[in-house]
Design brief:
Layout lengths: L30 H11 L22 H6 L39 E6 L9 H4 L2 E3 L4 E3 L13 H18 L3 E4 L12 H10 L4 E8 L9 E5 L3 E2 L2 E2 L4 H19 L13 E4 L3 H4 L5 E8 L3 H7 L2 H20 L1
Parallel strand pairs: 1-4, 1-5, 5-10, 6-9
Antiparallel strand pairs: 2-3, 6-10, 7-8
Length: about 325
Amino acid sequence: MSYVGPDFDPPQPRRPRFRPLTVAVAALVPGALLGWLVYEAVGGSGGGGGADRATVRTTSSTPASSAAASGGSASSSTGDDKNPGSPTPTLASPTSSAPAASGPLKGKVIVIDPGHNPGNFQHATEINRKVHIGTNVKECDTTGTSTNSGYTEAQFTLDVSHRLKALLEKQGATVKLTHDDGSPAWGPCVDKRAQIGNKARADAAISIHADGSAAGNRGFHVILPGSVHAGAADTREIVAPSAELGERVAGNFVRVTGEPPSNYIGDGTGLVTRKDLGGLNLSTVPKVFIECGNMRDSKDAALLTSGAWRQKAAQGISDGIADFLTS
């Protein structure tokens, strides 16, 4: 996603403090960077997948006709926080999940938040309304970004979310999506997305995204919640577990995908802490965002548009969540 608009104040990412973790490879970041270096040493090729919500992205607009043909809008997005009136009554359907199977994650509830919604571009008025996120107000949602060829972020995030849901359910987890297959038709707003995870009492929640930064900016990064206590936001209880969740997701993501940590944010760690995202500020359960790649970089775009690579991305995220929930 790209950061533009009247409410955007360029955040000042803090380098997170890491704690020892017990799972090899997936444990620490800069373990993510170490994993990438090991991967490169044995002849692997890393694809760039890190976009973010912490830097100003220079997302150029794609013609509306291209965006419409690909099922979404190519306009830039301001993080994941945007509008208040999202359709609360219709959220029950997207949050439904298949019966949990037996497995190591049986009894665990996981909420997946596919960034944006393919229908947002048809509902500009609705998604531009403001919602309170604790520290300030932001738009309900945005359309997200796209590749130069018109493959939208909303399409990407929903596809990866479906793959991730299937992997987690095979391990016995109960999985809920914040929206799915056009329901609701737009949004939901970022405050509602957080509420879905809270109401589900999720053991872990993750928001899936891709960036719209400048060409040449590559690599993934995971966004962690900072300590916020303002208005309706109080993240103090989830900061530590969210950081652990993020570290495990980052470590596994680099291991499975070969994707390097972002070369333009996070100081090479693959982790960024932010206090300006409603989806994190309003969460009462451990939650992180992942920017899987930069849609505006040709090398990253080649990965993001590959179904085989999206399956790897889902696997890396699934492995990280499983490590967090079973450690």
